[in-house]
Amino acid sequence: MEYITATELRTKTKELVKYLRSGNSTNLVYKSKIVGIVSPVIEKKSKVVDEHFIKFMKKASTDTITTNKQREQTYRKHLLDKYGR
User: Fold this and answer.
1) Among 19, 33, 75, 78, which has the minimal tally of Cβ within 10 Å of its Cβ?
2) CB-facing half-sphere around the CA of 64: CA atoms within 13 A
3) Residue 1 above 80 pLDDT?
4) Phi then psi for 11, rounded to 5 degrees?
5) Sequence ranges of the domains in the chain
6) 0.70 cut: is pTM over it?
7) CB proximity list for 16: less than 8 A, separation 6 or greater
8) Are 36 and 58 in contact (CB under 8 A)?
9) Per-residue confidence band for 62, with pLDDT thresholds at 50, 70 and 90
10) pLDDT of 76-85, one tens digit each?
11) How far apart are the C-alpha atoms of 36 and 5, rounded to whole Å?
C-alpha cells in the first residue's frame, strides 16, 4: 500500500490500521495529488520508576505506624506552637 485515496481512507480503514501497525507509512492522495503522509505513531516507553522516585520512597517510608492518638497529639502540638493558647 504505497498510497491511499481519500475514499479508500473511509472504506479500507481496517487494512490501513494493519498496514500502519506493521510500521509502514503511506501517501494520502486527493484529486490525483499527494496531500500528505499517513505514518504510524512511534510510542516511547517511559520509565515507570526512576532512581529519584526510589530514593524518595525509601526516605519517606517509615517502619513505625502512627496511631490516631499520636497523630492527634502531634496535630494539637502543632496548633499550639503556631497559634498559642
Assistant:
1) 33
2) 5
3) no
4) -90, -25
5) 3-38
6) no
7) 1, 4, 8, 9, 26, 38
8) no
9) low
10) 999 999 998 7
11) 11
- Measure Cα distances from 79 to 13, 65, 66, 68, 73 in Å: 64, 22, 18, 16, 10
The three cell numbers of residue 51 are: 532512581
Query: Given a cut of 90, is residue 26 above it in pLDDT?
Result: yes
Please list the residues that pair with 77 across neighbouring strands.
none
The mean pLDDT value for 39-43 works out to: 86
Of 31, 25, 37, 33, nearest to 1 by C-alpha is 25
What pLDDT is stored for residue 44 in this prediction? 76
Where are the alpha helices (H) located in 1-85, listed in sequence order?
A: 6-11, 13-21, 51-60, 68-83
- Provide the grid cell at 49: 520508576
